[in-house]
Amino acid sequence: MIYFDNSATTKPYPEVLESFLKVSSDYFGNPSSLHGLGVQSEKLLSAARKQVADLLQVNSSEIYFTSGGTEGNNLAIKGAAHSRMNRGKHIITTAIEHPSVEDACQSLMHAGFEISILPVNESGQIELSDLKDALREDTVLVSIMHVNNEVGSVQPIAEVGKVLSQYPNVLFHVDNVQGAGKVPLSLREAYVDICTYSGHKIHGLKGTGFLYVREGVRIDPLFHGGNQETKIRSGTENVAGIVALSKAFRISMNNQLLYHDKLEQIKKHLYKGLMEMQGVLVNSPEEGAPHILNFSVPLLKSEVLLHALESDGIIVSTTSACSSKKRAVSKTVDAMFHDQARSESVIRISTTYGNGLDEAKQVLAAIQKIVANLEKIMRVAK
Amino acid sequence: MKFDHIIIRYGEISTKKRNRKGFVDKMKAHIRWSLKDIDGVVLTANRERMYVLLNGVDHKPVIERLKGIFGIQSISPAIKVERDLEVMKTAALYYLNQTSEEVGTFKITTKRADKDFPYNTDEINRALGGHLLRNTEDVTVDVKNPDLNLLVEVRREAVYMTGEIIQGAGGLPFGSSGKAMLMLSGGIDSPVAGFLSMKRGLDVEAIHFYSPPFTSERSRQKVIDLAGKLAEINGSMKVHIVPFTEIQLLIQKQIPENYSMTTTRRLMMRVADKIREKEESMAIITGESLGQVASQTMSSMFAINEVTNTPILRPLITMDKTEIIKIARELDTFEISNLPYEDCCTVFTPASPKTKPKREKVNYYESFVDFDSLIEKAVTETEILTIKPGQTFDKEEAMEDLF
């Protein structure tokens, strides 16, 4: 099997599973308990927090563990909006955000918030001038993803941060679920206030994640209860998952340093191969993230191609896994090209460390073969 | 374009005469240690300054580390470029753009050590200044009080540019004042007292009184975490954990309640003094602030201090709680200190301790009890830990490979 759907989820590293199992069986105490078993769990929790903070070059007190990307984005957006609603009720986001950002913003409209949505160009990037034009007196939150989950375009987070640093009223939230461990981002240098991370996209376990909230920034909690995570996220901590996450993050960040070029090389190869292929339109920008490559075969519905590849043992996805159950239109590709046929026939390849160039070659050959074969049939059908 | 070297100015040490070499050597050793994992940097020194030659290493992390080293007055990054006016222009702009704080006004001061350089100082000033004005927004010239005075030095081999002055930590080089023992309770004050002592060049070891089961494992951990914070300054901190339960129980039994606190402090002081003697140090540091609690009134200190003639350093004695908290926040110790666990100071505190204890009385009460043997026992059973920076739990445990 060639697993090329790493933006949907990644396979946990074996070392990560070992940690999870060991913590679950040996250190199962509640970190809030006063007894020794609880203290041990608490130590693990704070060591994990420190490791994550160190990898991001931030303080331990700025890391809040969550259940993953969706919770992180909801907590960031609703928490920030609610804590700032006295200062204004205007939020800016982009047309290509993950549904957990888009819908969280939409849900705030009931509370009287206004949402401005920035368009993207054909490279899948926003224009800074659009952002500047959209900023208002009552803007309290700007939420922009780092790496797009569908096409891999990378937003100019550092430049956006620099612009927003001139607006003390505005909080800057970045969804870095797809960028973590793949595309470097310095939270400090980009003046990011809140940033979302997910465990299972970096070879950790599902149901784990964390939120970076810059010191001094106050957000309201979504969950009320036992006041864990300094009241921002109540609920008994998933210590085993958190320790596993901190390990997965360390290994992924390490791999980013060591194997970034290899990932880039695989993408370049796929990019070149697909560009040359008849009937294929590449949607990802050439200079985008090194692990996501999105293309369309306008003559074929994406599901057809997906299943054909699957029968060859190649796992890819249509649009993002989170929206693929709704309808097969890629929101991002639509926002980039405004072309329905193109956005209905989208296939996303997403790689990770451990994938090889040989796999990319096999995949290219398989696509070539399938497209050639199916096109004949489809033409007849037409 | 990259920074070539970092200039380090000494500050107070430069006023020293014959002892100066000792101070400078201590500081040099400390800087070497703090930069040891950054490959490629070289440290050189002369009478007035030290230089970190970057050899291609990014200057920012180096400066971050230098900022925390005591004895350093200020730090300035410097660029070395070829003697070419165009290159100099680019370098000046680069310098202006990378300063850690936004620059609103600047001036240029050129020194031309090499008079053969085809442009004179005035021409250079004007050329560089004009280039900066043309390529920036909202930046103007102010020759009297500029945010950035860009110093340009034209020498035979190259042109050097510097100007941004970053405040150092001040104080005296670590260890240049000898060693002292810090009474570290786990509260807000004592880590601050430790930090301020280290700033004046003291090598500090901590003493903590631990009374299981009355105080929890967590309060001990808290002290280790605090020591881990202080250890960031010089790389490690020794913590002496004194088993204090037996002594405290005896006090509870034998000393009248309102004097129990005074006696407890006196005995802690005696134990601390014994450990100090063993460690060949010359002072005890406490986090006391005058009048803050019953044990820190003038009368209490007078009664407690009677047990030793070792210098007791009280760096916080005149500070208000708010001032102390401010430093604790900067040190990142406040949050740790604020965790709500019982510690040695809180469990046995009587409801109404004497705020004006008398020496005669406390001596009278203590005269019926033999504490000496228990003090000896506590000292010999003291556990000594060496804490590394940011050590949140004992890494030797089997937990290490979980991460």
From TrEMBL, chain A:
Cofactor: pyridoxal 5'-phosphate
Start and end residues of each Aminotransferase class V domain: 2-353
Keywords annotated in UniProt: Iron, Iron-sulfur, Metal-binding, Pyridoxal phosphate
GO molecular function: cysteine desulfurase activity; iron-sulfur cluster binding; metal ion binding
Alphabetized Pfam families for the sequence: Aminotran_5
Protein family: Belongs to the class-V pyridoxal-phosphate-dependent aminotransferase family. NifS/IscS subfamily.
PANTHER family in the record: CYSTEINE DESULFURASE ISCS 2-RELATED, CYSTEINE DESULFURYLASE FAMILY MEMBER
Protein name (Swiss-Prot/TrEMBL): Cysteine desulfurase NifS
Organism field: Peribacillus muralis
Organism classification: Bacteria, Bacillati, Bacillota, Bacilli, Bacillales
TrEMBL record, chain B:
Reactions catalysed: [ThiI sulfur-carrier protein]-S-sulfanyl-L-cysteine + a uridine in tRNA + 2 reduced [2Fe-2S]-[ferredoxin] + ATP + H(+) = [ThiI sulfur-carrier protein]-L-cysteine + a 4-thiouridine in tRNA + 2 oxidized [2Fe-2S]-[ferredoxin] + AMP + diphosphate; [ThiS sulfur-carrier protein]-C-terminal Gly-Gly-AMP + S-sulfanyl-L-cysteinyl-[cysteine desulfurase] + AH2 = [ThiS sulfur-carrier protein]-C-terminal-Gly-aminoethanethioate + L-cysteinyl-[cysteine desulfurase] + A + AMP + 2 H(+)
GO molecular function: ATP binding; CCA tRNA nucleotidyltransferase activity; tRNA binding; tRNA-uracil-4 sulfurtransferase activity
UniProt entry keywords in alphabetical sequence: ATP-binding, Cytoplasm, Nucleotide-binding, RNA-binding, Thiamine biosynthesis, Transferase, tRNA-binding
Any Pfam family hit: ThiI
Annotated GO CC locations: cytosol
Keyword ATP-binding: yes
SUPFAM superfamilies: Adenine nucleotide alpha hydrolases-like, THUMP domain-like
Transmembrane domains' residue ranges: none
Record pathway: Cofactor biosynthesis; thiamine diphosphate biosynthesis
Entry keyword Lipoprotein: no
Leading EC class: transferase
Residue ranges annotated for the THUMP domain, each copy included: 60-165
EC numbers: 2.8.1.4
Cellular compartments annotated: Cytoplasm
InterPro entries listed in its UniProt record: Rossmann-like_a/b/a_fold (IPR014729), ThiI_AANH (IPR020536), ThiI_fer (IPR054173), ThiI_N (IPR049961), THUMP_dom (IPR004114), THUMP_ThiI (IPR049962), tRNA_STrfase (IPR003720), tRNA_sulfurtransferase_ThiI (IPR050102)
One GO process term, biological-process aspect: tRNA 4-thiouridine biosynthesis
Binding site for ATP: M183, L184, H208, F209, R265, G287, Q296
Annotated PROSITE patterns: THUMP
Role summary: Catalyzes the ATP-dependent transfer of a sulfur to tRNA to produce 4-thiouridine in position 8 of tRNAs, which functions as a near-UV photosensor. Also catalyzes the transfer of sulfur to the sulfur carrier protein ThiS, forming ThiS-thiocarboxylate. This is a step in the synthesis of thiazole, in the thiamine biosynthesis pathway. The sulfur is donated as persulfide by IscS.
UniProt xrefs under NCBIfam families: tRNA uracil 4-sulfurtransferase ThiI (TIGR00342)
Entry similarity comment: Belongs to the ThiI family.
HAMAP family assigned to the protein according to its UniProt record, in alphabetical order: ThiI
Name of the protein in question: Probable tRNA sulfurtransferase
Native organism taxonomy: Bacteria, Bacillati, Bacillota, Bacilli, Bacillales
